[in-house]
Amino acid sequence: MFHQNMKNPRFQNSYLIFYVHSFYIIGVISIILIFGSLAECKVSSSSKLNNFDYTAINCRKHSAILTEFDAVGDGKTLNTKAFNSAITKLSQYANDGGSLLIVPPGKWLTGSFNLTNHFTLFIQKGAVILASQSQDEADWPQLPILPSYGRGREKNEPVGRSSSLIFGTNLTDVIITGNNGTIDGQGSVWWEKFKNDQLKITRPYLIELMYSDQIQISNLNLINSPNWFVHPIYSSNIIVNGLTIRAPVDVPNTDGINPDSSTNVRIEDNYIESGDDCIAIKSGWNEYGIKFGKPSQHIIIRRLTCISPKSAMIALGSEMSGGIEDVRVEDLTAINTEAAVRIKSAVGRGGFVKDIFVKGMNLNTMKSVFSMTGSYADHSDSKFDPKAALPNVTGINFRDVTAKNVTIAGELKGISNDPFTGICISNATIEMFVNKDADKVKLPWNCTDVSGVTSNVVPKPCELLPEKKVDCSFPNDKLPIENVQFKTCSI
Ligand SMILES: *[C@@H]1O[C@H](CO)[C@@H](O)[C@H](O)[C@H]1NC(C)=O
Ligand SMILES: *[C@@H]1O[C@H](CO)[C@@H](O)[C@H](O)[C@H]1NC(C)=O
Ligand SMILES: *[C@@H]1O[C@H](CO)[C@@H](O)[C@H](O)[C@H]1NC(C)=O
Ligand SMILES: *[C@@H]1O[C@H](CO)[C@@H](O)[C@H](O)[C@H]1NC(C)=O
Ligand SMILES: *[C@@H]1O[C@H](CO)[C@@H](O)[C@H](O)[C@H]1NC(C)=O
Ligand SMILES: *[C@@H]1O[C@H](CO)[C@@H](O)[C@H](O)[C@H]1NC(C)=O
Ligand SMILES: *[C@@H]1O[C@H](CO)[C@@H](O)[C@H](O)[C@H]1NC(C)=O
């Protein structure tokens, strides 16, 4: 799955650690099994899992196959009804060991459908869930706008938005996984209509879970979403791992994974190639986000590989009005990407971005490595408070960075009466792109309204970030979501 990166020795290393860790977990589960407390989970004795073994936060007692509900996998027959009746039927087992729906090999065309509690959607290798290409409301029911945005995010009108292809709200314990099955959003029709301003409401996301707890999304190929790919919002205890996410690099708003007003999130071992940010952490828009007041916090992101020529590997904002705090990021690789970890905010946003920790970035061909802006003037409406609603951006730590072929090392722009403070950058080596034809050499750093320190950074940083002997901090403790272990389940 990480074909692009197996040449990268650091990546191989972490992969090895990952496997060693998995064996450790299997060992721990075996011991627990001996004492008989995990009756529903069978542990495979070898590392080779058969088709119907998989790892998950919870195993299920009941299961069904999509074809039991008159589904036709020819890529032409619409199966929305089959998905809905299967999941409605399986929802009766929520309090009796939970249930699992197998999507077998085939092409399963469908409109939007809803998930249920204590439920696993298992997409087998060779199975493709294909999103309907009609923009009809029958396939894409209209949902009310998100309260923390106050508007359709892209129509900028207080109207509705299209339900995501796979949707869930107010759920507990929901898993979307498979052994590398595919969800294809067939987004091209939406991208065209969006570019030509032919849509009345905000485009659907591929997967959205709202007000939900205990979510796992893993081991799948997600391609060509109409809009963002994975959007957990107002949710908690979320694991997203082993996804390969791909959209053409020139299509609008195909962000990979966007935790939004969500807590306790673990995002590991994903490969993302997209026309927008690979990951964007958000928490609502201007006065609506401030009023809703739900931050995104306690988030760990590890071993991400990103290609995003027009956007960031990880963006914080620009919608951050409910606040973003305690984000830990380790072991990142970006190739041909505009910015690494980018903070975007504006006057009117309010909220905060604080306690951000980044350790270990290996970057190649970037417009800018360090990027912060306080003038991302993309507003929900004109009702924001330009005097009081100032973002508090503070405590932003980066260490152990190597970058090659970079146009701008650091472009750090705070807000004039509201500087971004507590920036720390240590042990960063940036090789600049040398454009022999340029008549004027660009300065590698451009900083205004920021303060902080740097240590052992090449090329020499701007004067607002003076040298001080430090290793920028990274927390030693573990987040609760890091202690959640996968079980090996068998159907
Ligand atoms: C999963 O799918 C991706 C993309 O199709 C492929 O590159 C990768 O090798 C597959 N991984 C496995 C384990 O089958
Ligand atoms: C899916 O959930 C939404 C939001 O609760 C609801 O409006 C819609 O009717 C549901 N769709 C189905 C098919 O149950
Ligand atoms: C979902 O949970 C939210 C927050 O607790 C609540 O406001 C909303 O009414 C719930 N919706 C449903 C359909 O239960
Ligand atoms: C910003 O947040 C920091 C840390 O929580 C706090 O010490 C500081 O007073 C805040 N600054 C403003 C202007 O609110
Ligand atoms: C500096 O960062 C590099 C990775 O870019 C890492 O290999 C090295 O160990 C770091 N050095 C120190 C002293 O932490
Ligand atoms: C370096 O970056 C420039 C764009 O900034 C790109 O055109 C060029 O192909 C890159 N060179 C390498 C060796 O990747
Ligand atoms: C720094 O950025 C500002 C725009 O924010 C630009 O006007 C200025 O020319 C840049 N300075 C340098 C030295 O590149």
TrEMBL record:
This is Uncharacterized protein. It comes from Trifolium pratense.
